[in-house]
Structures are given as C-alpha cells and as structure tokens.
From TrEMBL:
The lineage of its organism: Bacteria, Bacillati, Bacillota, Bacilli, Bacillales. This is Type III polyketide synthase. Coiled coil: none annotated. The keyword Transferase applies. It comes from the Bacteria. Belongs to the thiolase-like superfamily. Chalcone/stilbene synthases family.
Length: 383
C-alpha cells in the first residue's frame, strides 16, 4: 500500500438479519413437496440444496416458512396466488429501513463515530426500490446532517458493496476529514419464483436476506482492530455479459446465473489480482464474496489457499447464504473476529466480489490489530 493511503480504514462494521430463519434441509423438503408433480425438478432441488454450501439463511417474509401448500412463493397452482412485483416492493419498503438502521447503528457504535460527523452516505441495494429512498429514511432516523452527501448505488448486484468501499476510500483520499457511512440492504428471498426452471431453483437455493454497514475514514489510534484500505481495482470481464442477468419480472426479479461463472473467474481474475498487487507477495487474507461455493473453490484451488484462509467466506455462506451486496461486509466482520480471537498481528490481503457484467471489484486490505493498553499509554506518553 502507498503510505498516503495507509491511514484510510474501515473504522467500524455492523451487520443485521431479519427475524425469520430458513433451515436449508427444511426448505428443500418443502420445495420438493411443491414440485411433487415434477419429479426431475424435485430430485435436482434435493441435490442442489445439499451441495451449495448453505445450512441456514434468513428472510423478512414469514410466508416462506409455511408448508408447501400455503407458501405463495412456492405455489405451482395459480399465478394469481403468487405475490406480484408491486406486493414484493411494498414488503421491501416496509422491511428494508429497520434492517438497514440496525446495521448502521452497530457500525457507528463499533467505530465510535458520531452520526453528526458523517459527511457521505452510500446506500446499496439491488433487491428493491422506492422514493424517497432508503438514503432519505436513514438520514432522518439516524440523525445525520441534512446536508450529508447521499450516493445511492442501486441495481448493481453482488459486487456493489465492495464498489461502495472502493468509492469511499477514494472520497477520503481526496478529503481526509470525510467520514463515509455505507449501508447495504438486500432482501433477496423476496424474489423466490414459483418456477420449476433450474435457473429459478438455483437462485432459491442459496440467497438470503441481510444488511451490513461500515464507516470509512481516516484511521486514528483506538482499541479496535481495523482494516486499512489500499489500492482498488475494477474490471468488466470480456464476453461474459450474459453469464449473470437480473431483470424485473411480473412476479419479482428474475435471476439467471450461468454455471460457467467459476470457470470465467479462474480464467480472467489471476491477471487482475496481479494488476492489483503489482508484483507484491501473495495475499495472506482473502475476503472472498461467497457468490457460490464454486467461486470459493476456484480461488482456493488457483492460489493454494488453506481452509483457514477461506473460512470467513465459507462460514458466511453456510450461516447466511449469499446476501448479494451486503455479504462482503459480513465476510470482513467474520474475518476480523477470527483475527482478534487468535491475537493475530498485522496481516495484508485483498477483498474481492463479483457481479453482473461480469464485473469484479477488488481492494487491498491490511489488518491492524487492536492497540493494547500498554501501547496506548506509551503512545500517549510520547505525544
């Protein structure tokens, strides 16, 4: 990292999930029952749900916990009983704000940052929209300055959370007094489709709901472990625009994910990582957005990563599923908890996430351990 950039850091992180928990085995059983008249699809669902690396997820929609006969999202009987896109957006409007608020308050508290000092607010979501939006609601309910610079990043997909971190670093690099609050809210389960098509069933197998937040600013001496931010890099991969598609349909948003995505990542991403690290040592920390088990497996095989290095990504995937843009901050939070609990020293690495395009966002990170009381007293004495 450049010396000038080393003082820019993620000062605090917060995460939150809805109250309703989806058990993977139970969800698979209920969806299989809904597909009982389509045995090929039912068998594929059983295999897919077992192999995707997810054990639990969370949802804002209690109807998704109902039996197959009563779940409107699994219905195979009549389109009239399936929630329309308008109804799903009403649910999004009602549920997204409190979930985002909870994550944001945790991030501010974790970083010991006063809401009044926030200069920029970046809100991120691809699973719903309304106006006045999430950004306006957060300003009012968090007590941010009405003059805060609001930057909504909408409908950019899974990579948008890390895009927001990269943008925040650039903002603080140009103004060291800036403090950027990022809030990502994704209610992915609202878009589960009553379909037997493999593309729809694939999305239903591992997406979950969640919100995450962080504060990016100039790092000062404190008692919290921080992730300092270095160079960032964004790339639109060639010949891959149709590999990940997310469109608005009549019954929620329609998602298509190609099975070629891990192969494309394996083919194109090593050159981009080399561009980011510029001949430096192989990263020790790997904050990988778990867009699917295959993505983690591909990078693990390419770089000979240990189980410990991919554990944060696999743990988040197992416990929460893929929460689109919100997921990368869950991974960084999980990684930081592990580093602190092991008493790890300064460690460098990268964070990377993938989204429609195909696009890849990546940034250098460096873990800065918590300052001990002895070190704090010594610093104060020298000051």
């Amino acid at each position: 990292m450049k010396q000038a950039e080393a003082a820019i850091a993620i000062l605090g992180i917060g995460t939150s999930v809805p109250d309703y928990r989806l058990d993977q085995a139970d969800t698979s059983q209920r969806l299989t029952q809904a597909l009982s008249e389509l045995p090929d699809s039912a068998r594929w669902v059983k295999r897919l749900f077992k192999q995707c690396g997810v054990e639990t997820r969370y949802t804002c929609e209690p109807n998704l916990l109902e039996s197959a006969d009563n779940c409107r999202y699994f219905s195979q009987r009549s389109d009239h009983s399936v929630p329309s896109t308008a109804e799903r957006m009403e649910t999004y409007k009602r549920e997204s704000v409190p979930l985002g608020l909870k994550a944001a308050r945790k991030a501010l508290a974790d970083g010991k940052v006063e809401p009044s000092t926030i200069t920029h607010l970046i809100t991120v979501s691809c699973t719903g929209q309304f106006l006045p939006g999430l950004d306006a609601a957060l300003v009012q309910q968090l007590g941010l300055a009405v003059t805060v610079n609001r930057i909504p990043l909408n409908f950019l997909g899974c990579a948008a959370g890390l895009k927001a971190v990269c943008l925040s670093r650039q903002i603080v690099a140009s103004d060291s007094s800036a403090k950027v609050l990022i809030v990502c809210v994704e209610l992915c389960t609202l878009h589960i489709q009553p379909s037997s098509e493999r593309e729809a069933l694939f999305g239903a197998s591992f997406f979950g709901d969640g919100a995450s937040s962080c504060v990016v600013g100039a790092a000062e001496s404190n008692l919290h472990g921080l992730f300092q931010l270095g160079n960032d890099h964004s790339i639109l991969l060639p010949d891959s625009a149709e590999e990940m598609v997310w469109e608005v349909g009549n019954y929620g948003f329609d998602l298509y994910l190609s099975t070629n995505i891990p192969k494309l990542i394996g083919r194109f991403i090593p050159e981009q990582i080399e561009h980011l690290i510029r001949g430096g040592h192989k990263p020790e920390l790997w904050a990988i957005h778990p867009g699917g088990k295959g993505i983690i497996d591909t990078l693990e095989d390419l770089y000979g990563l240990t189980q410990e290095q991919t554990l944060p990504s696999r743990t988040v995937l197992r416990n929460y599923g893929n929460m689109s843009s919100a997921t990368i901050l869950f991974v960084l939070h999980e990684m930081r908890q592990g580093l602190i609990s092991r008493g790890s020293g300064p460690t460098a690495g990268i964070a990377l996430a993938f989204g429609p395009g195909l696009t890849c966002e990546m940034i250098q990170i460096a873990y800065r351990p918590p300052v001990t009381l002895e070190e704090q007293l010594l610093n104060e004495a020298h000051a």
